[in-house]
Design brief:
The protein is mainly α. Helix content is 53%, strand content 2%. Strands 1-2 form a two-stranded antiparallel sheet. A hairpin with a 4-residue loop joins strand 1 and strand 2.
C-alpha cells in the first residue's frame, strides 16, 4: 500500500514540475521528433493509435467458450486503420479548434497507415507552399463583389397557372 502512495506522490510532483508554457517550436527534442506539428495533434494521434490497437486486439482475441476468433489479423488491421483515417481529421479539428491544414490532415492519415514514420514521410514529400502549410493566399486584386441579391426579377404569375423552368424568360 505504501508503494502505491509513493507512486502517486511521484506522479503529482512530475505533473507539478512541468513547464506551464511549453511550445513545440521551443523544444529541440520535440522539433526533432515531430517537426512543427501542434502538440494537440500529436496527442490526438497517440490516443487514436492506442484506441485502434485496443480495437484490433479485441477483434483478433479469442472470445467465448469454445474460444472463437471473430476476424483475422489482416481484416482487423484494415478495419482499424480505416477507422483511424476517418476519425483523425474529425478529432484533430475538435482538438485544435480550427480546420486542419492539408499537411496536418495528410500527416495524420498517413500516420494511421504507417505508424511512427508516416508524418515524417508526408513532411518530406509535400512541398512547403502556402496551400499545404495553411497560410493565407495573397489576392491579386480586390475581391469580386456579388450583386445577385440586388437583382430581383419579378415575373407575373397567375396563382392557378403551373410554372415550369421553360416558362421563365432567360433575358435579364
Amino acid at each position: 500500500m505504501l508503494w502505491k502512495m509513493w507512486r502517486a506522490v511521484a506522479l503529482i510532483l512530475a505533473i507539478g514540475l512541468q513547464s506551464q508554457a511549453v511550445r513545440a517550436d521551443e523544444n529541440p527534442l520535440w522539433r526533432l521528433l515531430f517537426g512543427h506539428e501542434d502538440p494537440r495533434l500529436t496527442a490526438t494521434g497517440i490516443g487514436l493509435g492506442i484506441a485502434t490497437t485496443g480495437a484490433s486486439y479485441a477483434l483478433t482475441h479469442k472470445h467465448g467458450v469454445p474460444a472463437v476468433r471473430t476476424t483475422s489479423a489482416g481484416v482487423a488491421f484494415g478495419v482499424t486503420t480505416f477507422g483511424c483515417m476517418v476519425l483523425y481529421p474529425i478529432i484533430g479539428t475538435i482538438a485544435v479548434h480550427r480546420e486542419l491544414t492539408p499537411r496536418e490532415a495528410y500527416s495524420g492519415i498517413v500516420g494511421c497507415i504507417i505508424p511512427f514514420i508516416g508524418g515524417w514521410i508526408v513532411d518530406q514529400t509535400l512541398p512547403h507552399d502556402p496551400w499545404y502549410d495553411g497560410l493565407p493566399a495573397k489576392h491579386a486584386g480586390r475581391p469580386r463583389a456579388w450583386h445577385h441579391a440586388s437583382r430581383q426579377h419579378h415575373y407575373r404569375r397567375h396563382t392557378k397557372q403551373h410554372v415550369s423552368a421553360a416558362s421563365i424568360p432567360l433575358t435579364r
